[in-house]
Each structure stands twice: as C-alpha cells, then as structure tokens.
Amino acid sequence: MALRILAAVLAAAAAAVIALPGECPAEEKAVYPASLPPGLQKGREEGEFESTRDGAVMVYIAEGEFEVGSDNADEDEAPRHKVGVSAFFIDKFEVTNEQYGKFLEWWRKAPPAQKKAYSHKDEPAELDHTPAFWQKPKEPPREGEDKSPAEAPSGGAAREEPVPEDPVTGVTWYSAFAYAGWAGKSLPTEVQWEKAAGYDRRTKTVFKYPWGMQKPDFTLLNFLGNVRKPTRVGTYRTGVSPSGCHDMAGNVWEWCLDFYHKDFYKSKAGSTADPVNHFPSPCRVTRGGSYNSDETEVRCAYRDRTRPGESFKDLGFRCVKNVPPPGGEGGGSGN
Ligand SMILES: [Ca+2]
Hints:
There is one protein chain. By secondary structure, this protein is an alpha+beta fold. 18% of the residues lie in helices and 15% in strands. It has five helices and 13 strands. The protein has helices at residues 2-23, 97-109, 112-118, 173-182, 190-198; strands at 40-42, 48-51, 57-61, 64-68, 81-85, 88-91, 199-200, 205-206, 253-259, 284-287, 303-306, 315-316, 320-322. The strands form four sheets. A five-stranded antiparallel β-sheet has the order 1-2-3-6-13. It has a four-stranded mixed β-sheet with strand order 11-10-9-12. The chain is globular, with a radius of gyration of 23 Å.
C-alpha cells in the first residue's frame, strides 16, 4: 500500500515537472518589436539591441500602462496614477566617458549647420560641450608664444583623465540634449525613466527600488558616499531593474527631457498618454540619485530638478529611442 502511494506521489511529481514549462504565464514571455527603428540593430545578447551611432546597448520597454508616482512619500510624487506609455528603447547603462568622447570629437570638427541641428534652441552660445572636469582642447600656439603651454588648468592641479567605462558627468542638460540628438536618440521623459527603473512587466507591479522592495545596501548600488565617486557603469549587477537597466538607482543622477514642475503628476497633462512637461520652468528633471544620495533619493519615484545650464560631478544621463508610430518620424523627439 505504502509503495503504491509512493509511486503515485512520484508520478505526480514527474507530471508536475513536465507540466512546468506549459504553466509559464503568457506575460513572462519576452516581447520584442516587430521591426527595429533606424539606427538600431540586434545586440549580442538575446533581448538586447545596439545603437549604431554611439554603440550603446539598449533594451526594449513594451507599450502599456503602469502606475507612476507615489502616494506616501514626497508631495510632488502624488498622486500615484496610471499612464499609458508607448513602446521605447532605453540605454542599458548610463552614457560613458568613452561614448561621450566620440560625440565631442565629432562636435569639435562639425560644420556649424550640423551642430545647430542637434542643439537646443536655448543652448548658451559659449557652450562647447566639454565636460566640466575634462581638459579643454589645446589652442594652437600663436606666433611668438611659448609653444609648451602649462598642462594644468587655472585652478592649479591637473585634471584627472576620464575613465572610459565611467559615466560621463559634468555635462549640462544642453550637452545631454545635443548628445542624444547626435546619437539619433532623445533624453527620456521622466515617466519613461520611471517605467524603465521600476516597472515589472511579469507581475504588473512597480518596485520601490529597481531591484524590488529590499532596503538599499552597498551590494545593490553606489550610494551614500560609500565609494565617493562614480563606479564603472554596470558594476552593481544585483541592482538591475526589471527591464534590465543598470544604475537606475545611484552612481550618477540622470537628466530627463521634461521641465520640472512639482504639480506635474497632479495635472491633466501628467495623466495623459506619454506625458512630458514642455511647459517652461527654471529646472529640468533629474532622476535616480547618485553616489552621494541617501536611500530616499534612490527610490524609483523620487523626483528632483537641476538648472539646465549647471553641471555636477555626480550628474550624467542615458538616452531613449522612441518607436515611431506607423508612418511617423524616426529617432528623437523635440524639446
Ligand atoms: Ca544613475
């Protein structure tokens, strides 16, 4: 009798194992676009794509509603509400010094008309897009001048050589905007950014932090002054977001496309499909916190802002590529 029961249990267990793949919920299957927008090709890994202009690895965020904001934290995050978001691709990592260097090389040689095509209309005329902590290009020595100008800038100490795999920092919003245009991409809207940071398509829930609800610690992200500088992009593999993006929490803050307004999530404009705040204000949105941030600032729903002409050592960006609607225009988007 006992043997017969054991056999039945074993048979049931075997059946359960065989049945497992069939029980996989439909929404867990990866969703990919039917075709790729110009400037994007399949990446080396399954589910990854590569931007042909800057070589950035991108992931796909399928079209669909999600709940943006938060009801029990800062006032400007409320109310938590549903918004529809069209499909888009987003950089898996923050833009690196190496990638930004390619843009800068192009920029320094490009004819004015081409530069203008990627510049924002409010961009200050004197901006040359060199990050604040990089060496300016050397001017050729004039007739009769010392032909070996000092290496050190006026501040005294020589500037550090940027690490290629580190996120670029010290860039204004205008520089991030111009880079995105050059790369055939755009800056993320803050809602796109928030969806890529915290939305889990499999469970249709939004995480408090990119990795879930677990309290932040030094194995998950670069924050709280532990390292005191940016780390190479993608260092914290356990802190990856459900969509596969790295460093959405911490490392460096990230510029977004929108003007910041504290009541944007309360407004009608903030509740429509694909919301973006184009209504001018003194600041643009910055998201995700940095290596200096506390656990409040690295939440997916946390909204911050910075004046677009300012640059900081812990502020960088990543880009998105919008999927054009049928018959629509490609790549980037407006101001
Ligand atoms: Ca970040």
